[in-house]
Design goal:
The complex is a heterodimer of chains A (about 325) and B (about 140). Chain A is an alpha/beta fold and about 325 residues long. Chain A has three domains: about 130 residues, Rossmann fold (3-Layer(aba) Sandwich), CATH 3.40.50.700; about 40 residues, no CATH class; about 110 residues, no CATH class. Chain A contains twelve helices and nine strands. In chain A, strands 2-1-3-5-9 form a five-stranded parallel beta sheet. A two-stranded antiparallel ribbon of chain A has the order 4-8. In chain A, strands 6-7 form a two-stranded antiparallel sheet. The longest helix of chain A is centred in the first third of the chain and has 13 residues. Chain B is globular. Helices cover about 45% and strands about 15% of the residues of chain B. In chain B, helix 3 links the parallel strand 3 and strand 4. Chain B starts with 6 loop residues before the first strand and ends with a helix. In chain B, helix 1 packs across helix 4. Classes of the chains: A alpha/beta (about 325), B alpha/beta (about 140).
């Protein structure tokens, strides 16, 4: 391995919380293996490189870029396009780049509503003049600019061509190390467009909770409304768990920690739309035959769209709320 | 009525499709706005089918199955009913009017009822105007 030229690795964040970058840091002592095999050429959260350093790189200069975060403003979009141009293998890293993630829930709203809430209505805001962020502003020293905030949040592959997807919120660090080592050792890479660092089978396949075939739900509970016995399948207890429509690979960590799966790993390759798949699965479990009775049970699912598309709204079939 | 809505109709093979067929063979006249997709059972209609119909330009989606208790596969229409109720809640959250998605039971002998249903639904959807899902998706992608 010593004779091989080192890989050039970049990590970038779009509309993200920073958790994905931390999951990269979580390689702990494996970091020495990473640094032995790769040079980090760009990583805003940890290293002092500037955008212009990237702009000056020749095309295809970076071997692998882990792009985390969704695309929600003009800066995210510019960097996505720039890194695509400079990178051989672009990886959509984490739920936001993969499917839109938590920032993607903004697609239930509009730019106007978000600005109104954040800069005018919120309880901690004092803004009597109703000033909203401007993309350009003239001051004595010159012109100040801010990125344009889009009305719509997009996944990375809705903006640029993506080579691989590494799902999770955040992705499990072990999976990242496996994928990274596969690239370093020159192992056969999966076909372009594959989801890496995750399995194709559902969470339920790995979940160790007790399951029966007789799944019938008379009432849905939110996790705090029920005393979980720690053993029985969450769905059989009436708690919504995204396991059936979510691919495994995370090691069912949430369920092992006695919290139901929320679906951050996204659907398996056979399901186009995770929420639709989940609605299909969960509806059949409802133990009622009369419309009124069915509706009464469904009433307990307070926010179906937000629950079933928690991490995947921009990547789903109906990408956003329709407003006329 | 100048605007002509497009309604995607999923009809179950055993009752509703036969009912629609009866309307045809009985030479009943009804609105030509539906695009029929035959499925083996209303329980085969996945929520994905409905969402994809809207995304690709349907103004409304109609699902028809056997009357409760009459399903060829015993339980399929009940499964459809539960999915329908959940989907209704979802599409309304997404800003799609509830009149644009409809579930009705039509038996093989109810050709006339089917024809009337299509006429009535066409009229209701025409009043609502075009569904904007496809247009919105085109402008943002």
């Amino acid at each position: 391995m010593e004779n091989k030229p080192k890989l050039k690795l970049a990590v970038y964040w779009g509309a993200a919380c920073g958790g994905c970058c931390v999951s990269v840091l979580d390689v702990h002592e494996k970091l020495f293996d990473v640094v032995a095999a790769a040079d980090l050429v760009f990583w805003p959260i940890a290293l002092d490189f500037k955008y212009k350093d990237v702009e000056e790189m020749p095309d295809q200069h970076i071997d692998v870029t882990l792009f985390n975060g969704a695309v929600r403003n003009s800066e995210n979009e510019h960097m996505a396009k720039l890194l695509r141009q400079k990178t051989k293998v672009l990886v959509a890293y984490g739920s936001c780049a993969h499917m839109g993630g938590i920032p993607g829930l903004a697609n239930f709203s509009t730019k106007e509503d978000i600005f109104k809430r954040a800069y005018i209505e919120s309880e901690s805001t004092v803004n009597p003049d109703g000033i909203l962020p401007q993309t350009e502003f003239e001051v004595a020293e010159g012109k100040l600019t801010l990125p344009v905030f889009y009305n719509d949040v997009k996944t990375l592959d809705q903006v640029v061509d993506v080579d691989y997807y590494l799902p999770g919120c955040p992705p499990q660090t072990e999976r990242l190390v496996e994928v990274f080592m596969a690239i370093v050792t020159g192992a056969q890479l999966p076909p372009k467009g594959s989801v890496v660092g995750a399995r194709d089978k559902a969470q339920c396949d790995e979940c160790e909770r007790k399951k029966t075939d007789n799944k019938l739900i008379k009432k849905f509970y939110r996790p705090w409304e029920i005393y979980d016995d720690g053993e029985t399948c969450f769905l059989e207890q009436g708690v919504i768990c995204m396991g059936p429509s979510t691919r495994s690979g995370c090691g069912v960590r949430c369920v092992k920690g006695n919290a139901p799966c929320r679906g951050c790993y996204g659907p398996s390759s056979e399901a186009r739309d995770p929420g639709a798949k989940m609605m299909s699965a969960i509806a059949t479990m409802i133990d009622a035959k009369e419309p009124e009775e069915v509706n009464k049970i469904i009433e307990d699912i307070v926010d179906p769209a937000g629950t079933f598309y928690r991490f995947s709204l921009p990547g789903s079939i109906l990408r956003r709320k329709i407003t006329n | 009525m100048s605007y002509k809505p497009t309604i995607v109709a999923f009809l179950c093979n055993w009752c509703s499709y036969t009912g629609a067929d009866l309307a045809g063979t009985s030479r009943m006249k009804y609105s030509p706005n539906i695009r029929v997709i035959r499925v083996m059972c209303s329980g085969r209609v996945e929520p994905t089918f409905v969402l994809k119909s809207f995304r690709e330009g349907a103004d409304a989606v109609l699902i028809c199955g056997c009357h409760p208790g009459d399903c060829h596969y015993h339980e399929g229409n009940y499964k459809c009913l539960r999915r329908y109720e959940l989907l209704q809640k979802y599409i309304q959250q997404m800003g799609i009017e509830k009149e644009r998605l409809r579930l009705e039971w039509v038996s093989a002998s109810e050709g006339k009822i089917f024809a009337e249903l299509v006429n009535e639904m066409t009229e209701t959807v025409a009043k609502l105007g075009p569904c904007t899902v496809r247009k919105v998706m085109e402008t943002i992608s």
